[in-house]
């Protein structure tokens, strides 16, 4: 590849100025003071499981300023959902979690809406509830959340509804390779453990917000903080309300963080707007975000590994029980895609059974890593356990089992763009693996290092389109349908366009966030924007270059193939010293020129033609993912064995991004991932009391703060570039991989410091003290009289 | 929030008379850092807010015969940075710097810190999340924490309510044998700081307010330490804290004052531990023994036994003057 001039450079974020000056618009800024706008508020179920006997809205309707009080009777008959249609927009016969939506009020003031909400009288018959996924999974579980499950419509991967072992199980995902029983017979060592992960919240800074406006032409315009104008907004609203796509327009502004949250305030705004014919705004409080955002899917993980004396993995069996909460939402997909991570190692015999289970807890969903961080919590601790038992170096054990470029992985895919080995080496070297810690251990404070390797795939079965307009002043407009959720994608996409067109990045304008104005994209999910939208933009740039050459051909007297458009000039390929500015194509007075205000418009679309769905029974396929981003984390911790406190002293990540289009932004993603990873490892857990979230605010919920994060010389993020042949300039998605190995890396370090292995998240002082106590007792037994 | 009236009080007498005439329909507001959260979560809905920041002369740190008087309107930040306090009462400065965040310390006052509400998540629950919990504190007849998630609640001295006293300032001030001055219609009274707090709140009678905290003179050269254990090093309240003030002469503990926070509905004076220390040569073993004695009275709930373990360690370390 020739020298790159914009790609690989730390271009300053295009949105930096707007954001630091406070002029950047967010969804909640919409419609402030707009005349006629109504405020929507939702009444949430106070019970984890109850039958609705009656709803009396008569007093609520009388509150001055109230325009509508809507209940289950006012929503479409059909159930809706993401993967499984298991839910009415407003509860009809039953509520299934604390926070299930029961009614919507739309009023001229927020105060009136709140007053009316308090006057809605709902009579409930409280039903027994189930909160534990393993209990809910039992075939004889007395509480059944969805007796009609077998009749529910499935919108995605219907085979996930086969072989369900109990009435509360909505998903069973299988992967089969080789024969695990046979593999375990060959093994010299078998390791088997149970792990669990906590329910954690995305805590994106911007709480969900949406304004729905019915237009006089019958179009519903929905502006929202939910990402993906097409799939997240338009397609969903169309399906939920039975509207054609031409009648729904999705609009997004800057989005204040996402991390996979899907709060859907816009569904309630849309419902109230349709019923009142007025614009309706719904803004969730932080508390509401906690139970409506679709938190990270908690899993119980039973892992069994078989390995040869020399460290060769021969069999892995993994059973996951996932607490999906009261509605399936996107969890079947999270469960299915959570299986991809395991393909980083060569494992000839593999068996995966993951179950999605209904419970009376708030519904779960996607969270940075999309179901992969949870299995890694177990798998990457096992690698260390195995290494210790075999007296092998854990880095070496991992290196030995890593799948290689070109090799078929355990899903049947050909491995490509495999930078994991280099990631491992980089972090091991920086942390000083095998060398003394940065500070010595004392009697009470033990210092040690640990690490883990993980990855995150990018979804293959999606589409991106883009339009590129080359303006006569040399500026370029790039239109695409993905969102700026804070990750910096607009900047990266501008860099891709600038590189492809050979123009400075300052001349690129990126336009996004409106389904009426930008071409289709699947959205900012699955770390796919750089790869998919980047490729679509690149194709559109190539298209516009072809158009420029074709237009210039008669002017310059050369065949289009003999011309090249680059940097706003059109060159003769045979003689690059002879050129003409693209702007001259618009010069009047020339017979062949473009009309003065004509456009040079290119378009591009990107998708994988050869992807495979995967065999429903074995999960095997040839192309199940677009790419894998590998991330290794190494960490040094200090554990106070008397108080259970864990301090993260030093942290290092190395991430194989294929190609860093903007290294600074990749590092920023890595740093953010580390912060979130440390949070998930040590502090964060949504605490529920009989289904109610207790710590649903930023005070009680334990996000790490600057004081808990290593900085300056104690934090290092390396980028590894195993170019991907299909990525734009070799790039692949990287945002989600950034936190997948953090928790097991920290767990491994804690073990190395104390000899205590924690298998449940988060690794709080309470848990650590309990484990240390148990260890002492055991040691006491051992050293006691025989 | 819907308060109908906001009065800027100009004197203690005026503030008290409004409180007396309006009963629980009026509440005092100082920095508002706690009160506004209470109003937002609809935990109280007073008709009148009585702003006491407008009362002149209640914001001071003043020496008197070796001791110190601190006005109720003194901001935590001023306590943290006061040269006198740093030099003579470092335990108090250390407690002050551990409070909340710089913003909260600049807004929050000493009086508000004493009178702030507990952080129990059942009590504090916002009605936005469906049902609220009508517990003892709200006039109900249950404590939801005893049968629920009580990991942050009291291990000592809970009665009806098991929420832990949230004030770090009170813990440090109790270790300095400080007194709180309460003003009411019929004059003022003075109570030891640790007696100010009771499981369901504090001993302020209707129509009373806190005007001052006074610290008696202290023998020079005392060893002071404030240690606070919490999940995160900023903003979080204490899961357990210890303030220790020791007089050590020739290696022997002549006098000891040990107060724990985060473990009881009030600053808990560990008398048994003080007894263990007095008259004994200060050694690591003695410090451990005092740590064990300090929490002997603990009766943990289902999820907070770890506080006992941590409390013992904190007491030991505070006595030895070791940092966390
Ligand atoms: C995020 C956060 C973190 C915090 N962390 C800590 C911490 O780590 N440690 C800690 O100790 N505290 C902590 N706090 C509490 C903080 O210290 C208090 O909110 C603050 O000191 C209260 O002072 P204020 O002047 O703002 O009181 P206000 O909010 O104005 O009042 C609080 C209460 O006290 C009453 N009141 C105020 N002054 C008087 C008076 N003179 N007489 C009688 N009643 C009065 C008010 O009526 C009200 O009920 C934290 C608070 C927050 C919000």
Key terms for this structure?
heterodimer; A: 786 residues; Aldehyde Oxidoreductase, domain 4; 3 domains; 7-stranded mixed beta sheet; 5-stranded mixed beta sheet; 17 helices; globular; B: 324 residues; 5-stranded antiparallel beta sheet; 4-stranded antiparallel beta sheet; 13 helices; 30% helix; binds flavin-adenine dinucleotide
Task: Set out the fold topology.
The complex is a heterodimer of chains A (786) and B (324).
Chain A: H1 16-20, E1 38-44, E2 50-56, H2 58-62, E3 66-71, E4 94-95, E5 101-107, H3 110-119, E6 121-126, H4 133-137, E7 169-177, H5 180-186, E8 189-196, E9 209-214, E10 220-224, H6 229-241, E11 248-251, H7 265-276, E12 280-283, H8 286-292, E13 295-296, E14 299-307, E15 313-325, H9 331-337, E16 349-358, E17 364-365, H10 373-389, H11 394-401, H12 420-431, E18 445-459, E19 464-470, E20 476-480, H13 489-501, E21 508-511, H14 529-556, E22 563-566, E23 569-572, E24 579-581, E25 600-606, E26 625-640, E27 646-656, H15 663-683, E28 688-689, E29 692-693, E30 715-720, H16 742-754, H17 765-783
Parallel strand pairs in A: 1-12, 10-11, 13-17, 15-16, 20-21, 27-30
Antiparallel strand pairs in A: 1-5, 2-4, 2-6, 3-5, 7-16, 8-14, 9-10, 9-12, 14-15, 18-26, 19-20, 19-25, 22-23, 23-24, 26-27, 28-29
Helix pairs in contact in A: 6-7, 10-16, 13-14, 15-16
Chain B: E1 5-8, H1 12-22, E2 26-29, H2 35-40, E3 48-51, E4 61-64, E5 67-71, H3 76-81, H4 83-88, H5 90-97, H6 102-107, H7 110-115, H8 144-147, H9 168-175, E6 179-184, E7 187-192, H10 193-196, E8 197-198, E9 201-202, E10 209-215, E11 223-229, E12 240-249, E13 252-261, E14 268-269, H11 271-277, H12 284-294, H13 306-320
Helix pairs in contact in B: 5-9, 11-12, 12-13
Flavin-adenine dinucleotide is lined by residues 27-35, 52, 72, 76, 98-100, 104, 107-109, 111-113, 115-116, 166-169, 209-210, 235, 237 of chain B.
